[in-house]
Write a structure and sequence with these properties.
332 residues; alpha/beta; Rossmann fold; UDP-N-acetylmuramoyl-L-alanine:D-glutamate ligase; three-stranded antiparallel beta sheet; 12 helices; 34% helix
Length: 332
C-alpha cells in the first residue's frame, strides 16, 4: 500500500491515506516520511474521505465494515483492491512482474538495479524496502524512473497475480505456502498465459511446466545456457563469473546467488549486456528484514530475517550456519 501511495505521489497525484498503526502512535518515522513527500495522513475513521476523491484503495487486510469503507459507500467513492490499482498502473507501462513463493522482493530489487544499470530508468513497486533506495532518502519499496519499464511483485497469496498482463513474467518457484499446490498451479498458469514473455527457473519442475518457446531459462548453475563459474560464497557477499564477466553481489548466501541469476536472466531477456547486469547487482545491498545484519557486540552478530515458510527458513539457516562454524548459534 505504501509503495502505491509513493508511486502515485511521485507521478504528481494527490494522495492521502490512513493506517491503524499511525492512529496508535506507531511508525512515526514512516508517517514523517509521508508528510515530507506530501502524502496526507488522516485517522482511520472515515473523516479523511471526501466525495471528490477518485477512489479508496484497500488491502486484503481491511475488513468490509471498516469505517473508511462505510464512508466511501456513503459518498459513492469507488473502492478498489490494491491489486486493481496496481493492474491499472501496469497497463500504462512495460511491466516486469516477479512471481513465485519465495524470493519475489529480493529478485524485484535486483531486477530494478539491473534495468537501471542497463540505462532503462525503471520504476519500482515492491513489497519490501531496498536498502539501496533508503540510502537515496526513499522509504525503499517504490521508485519512479523516467523510462517505460516498471518492476513489480505479483502476489500469489491472495490470487492477485492473475490481474496483471506483463511484458515479462519472472517465475521463481512454486511451493506450498499460503495455498495448496493444487490451488496454486491454475493461478500460475493464468499468470503465464497473460505474460508476453517469461523468465523461468528451469530448476523448479512446476515452473518448467509453463515453459514456452522463446522463454529465457535459468537455474542454480546457468543462465540461458551460460554456466556460472568460480563461485565464492564469502562472509557477507558472493562472487562468480558468467559469460566471461565477473559478478560480485553484496549480499550473502547461496540462495541469493540464485536470485541474482534470475535477475541476470531478465537482463538477458532485455538484451542488457552482462557487464551492465554486474554493475546493477553490485548496487544491490539487500532488502529490509532479509538476512540483514543489525549489529555486532562482544563478538555476537545479530541478523534480522523475515523467513516465514519452510524454504525461506532453510535458506536463512543455511546461510547463518556458513558464518558460524565452530561458534554458538541461536535462532529466536
Amino acid at each position: 500500500m505504501s509503495a502505491l501511495a509513493q508511486y502515485l505521489r511521485f507521478a504528481g497525484r494527490k494522495v492521502s491515506g490512513s493506517d491503524r498503526g499511525f492512529d496508535r502512535g506507531g511508525e512515526t518515522t514512516k508517517r514523517d516520511y509521508f508528510a515530507k513527500h506530501g502524502i496526507r495522513i488522516t485517522p482511520q475513521d472515515g473523516s479523511g474521505l471526501e466525495s471528490s476523491h477518485t477512489a479508496l484503495i484497500v488491502s486484503t487486510a481491511i475488513e468490509s465494515d471498516n469505517p473508511e469503507i462505510r464512508r466511501a459507500r456513503e459518498l459513492n467513492v469507488p473502492i478498489l483492491h490494491r491489486s486493481e490499482l496496481l493492474a491499472m498502473i501496469c497497463a500504462e507501462k512495460k511491466t516486469v512482474a516477479v512471481a513465485g513463493t519465495s524470493g519475489k522482493s529480493t529478485v524485484s530489487g535486483m531486477a530494478y538495479h539491473v534495468l537501471e544499470a542497463g540505462g532503462l530508468s525503471p520504476s519500482l513497486i515492491t513489497g519490501a524496502n531496498l536498502m539501496s533506495l533508503q540510502s537515496r532518502d526513499l522509504l525503499g519499496n517504490a521508485a519512479a524512473g523516467t523510462g517505460d519499464w516498471l518492476v513489480i511483485e505479483a502476489d500469489e497469496s491472495d490470487g492477485s497475480l492473475t490481474r496483471y498482463r506483463p511484458e515479462i513474467g519472472v517465475l521463481l518457484n512454486i511451493e506450498k505456502d499460503h495455498q495448496e499446490i493444487e490451488a496454486l498451479m491454475p493461478l500460475f498458469q493464468t499468470f503465464r498465459d497473460q505474460c508476453h514473455r517469461a523468465v523461468i527457473n528451469a530448476g523448479d519442475a512446476r515452473c518448467l511446466e509453463f515453459r514456452r518457446d522463446g522463454d529465457v531459462l535459468f537455474d542454480v548453475h546457468t543462465v540461458n545456457g551460460m554456466k556460472m563459474e568460480r563461485l565464492e560464497l564469502r562472509e557477507w557477499n558472493s562472487r562468480f563469473t558468467l559469460g566471461g564477466v565477473s559478478f560480485e553481489i553484496p549480499v550473502p548466501g547461496r540462495y541469493n546467488v540464485e536470485n541474482a541469476l534470475a535477475a541476470i536472466a531478465l537482463g538477458v531477456a532485455l538484451n542488457i549486456p552482462l557487464a551492465a547486469c554486474a554493475e546493477g547487482l553490485s548496487r544491490f545491498h539487500g532488502v529490509e528484514r532479509r538476512f540483514i545484519r543489525v549489529g555486532e557486540t562482544r563478538g555476537i552478530t545479530v541478523v534480522d530475517d523475515f523467513a516465514h515458510n519452510p524454504a525461506k527458513v532453510k535458506a536463512a539457516l543455511e546461510t547463518a550456519k556458513g558464518k558460524a562454524l565452530g561458534k554458538n548459534r541461536r535462532v529466536l
